[in-house]
Fold this protein.
Amino acid sequence: MTSRDRAWLLARRGSVVTAVALLGLVAVYVRALFFTPIERFQGPAQKIFYIHAPSAWVALLSFAVTGLLSVLYLWLKDRRLDLGAAASAEIGVAFSVVMLTTGPLWGKPIWGTWWTWDARLTSTLFIFLLFVGYLVLRGALSDPEVRARYSAVLGILAIPLVIFIHVTVYLFRTLHPDPVVLKPEAPSLPGEMLVTLLFSLAVFTLLYAGFLTQRYALAVLRELEDQEAADAVS
Amino acid sequence: MGEGARAVWAIAAKDLAIEWRTKTAFVSALAFAVLVLAVLYFARDPTAVASLDVAPGALWVTFSFAAMLGLNRAFLLEQENRALDGVLLSGVPRPAVFLGKMLANLVFVGAVELVSVPLFILFYDVPLWHRVPELLGVTAMATLSFVAVGTLLSAMAVRTRFAELMLPLLLLPFLVPPVVGAVQVTARILAQRPLSEVAGWLKLLAAFDIVFLFLAIFLFEATLEE
Amino acid sequence: MSAAGADFAPVGDRRPLIAAEGVWRFFGGRAVLRDVTLVAGAGEVVLLLGPNGAGKTTLLRVLAGLLRPSRGKVERRGRVGMVAHHSMLYDALTAEENLRFFARLRGVEPERAGELLARVGLEPRARQRVASFSRGMVQRLAIGCALLGDPEILLLDEPLSGLDEVSVGTLLELLRESRGRGRAVLVASHQFAELVEVVTSVAYLGGGRLLAWEPRGERGGAAIWDRYREVLSGG
């Protein structure tokens, strides 16, 4: 089997996983809207939570995966690790956008404000910005080896940075009392809601796996094509 | 270590000699600092916000932006005729190369800061003269952190398209902890409060310095062609 | 001596100062060097010949340790002096300052800078900035810089570019001297007619491969040129 065939097979497997996850997503919507009780204090708006929290989880997961693959790349210098890190970062951007748009939609009716500079919100905003910087940096480098090394450096630096930003905002908030009465924390959920949340988390994780596999396979295919083009020239 | 230290010093001295000769970067960073200080003074509602309230933020926005102007210069110099290859060929340990570049950047940014502080005290009329040592202390801590990360990132940024745009985009997120911390400490100093009130922030600054200085030294090697 | 599996014994039968063994180098998945094995011992001057894109510059950079081989290994026994495409000098510094800076990095007495400047005929220009230098003067200074600390290994990439007749003479003299003092020299150049008398062996590169590598013997410039075309056409 050629490497091209292997990449195609991987892409096909990825699309199967994605298809299953998308069906699961439909089920999440149905269950969240019709089969999960409406939260007493927050009303129907709380149902955004079943999309918001899992997106945040996937954004965080992809961030961690990018960081981990970056460390491994600098250690092992295997190009596949770099392609995986980049694929994860792209998915991370998409889910960060979902997280950052559903968050305010939920926050406005509940806390009375679109945005608050709480530690969690701020660090997730910076995760998004770091993902963007990471992808812009990749776009500005043409040599694949240099691109891999440089983006790995950024991917590694970003992990402690986000922790530091979290602590910074935490310290900042403890000095200035929080103007918002309700903290944007997940309330302890009653059974049925918890089941919906856990189900949604599982579906989103599966979606991440499907996207990652496909995106990675695509990156491999594109590389093979570039290589063939380069070989044709020489 | 003797050999490494000599290389660090030689590289920093060479960078500073070149900067001293042209002075373009220093003069423009300084002019830029004065401009930002002046603009930020007026960027408020004078009936609602006292200049003293915006002073710490203004100072640190000025410092970090002025620093950013100078940081790319360090590696553009090496890029020109691939002089960095010559440095690497001479068998200098790679961390020494990084430390040399970083030391030159520290002196550069430090010099800009040193000239800006008196101007800041004059412009914002802050009662600060007798607490200058503490201010210098916190300035040193915060400056070390963003110069360490900035030197590393500029080593990469100069190799990209749109290098001038890339450095701020990459570096700004890394300015959040040191700048927020430094602003908090500066505000306490301006309010004539003891530093013990900001022990948490000082610890944060110190931790950031240590973590990112080590990471930068360690990761620098990956920014070199190999 | 066939330490690195070379299929002949090069002139100057000693331990190699520099050796590339089965070196591959990829750029973005494209092989620029393919399984190159080449050694140079004391007193040897290896001429690298090959068309543009044959991998000469990459090979020299790999040998210098500026690039890591993707596969295979490189061994050096001694310090490296190099003349590359780029001058590796600082335009804003004077000739003397450049030499003194690199001397300090190499742990060489900075006073050696003056001698080397005289050697490459730049003494009168010592206090002028490199930015004001002509191409040939920059090249001379780069050669002087490569000789700092009298390195055991010299890697020269098109060292003749921009040099006038007098400077070419100086370079030849320096190469002859290096050979006599047991240095290992690898030089890539298209203007090999001028160099040929100091060369001990010729390596022909094409498409990243070492196509042939043989002692120069009594071949002169014209004979090497014929052999070069023969090798390239697959002979």
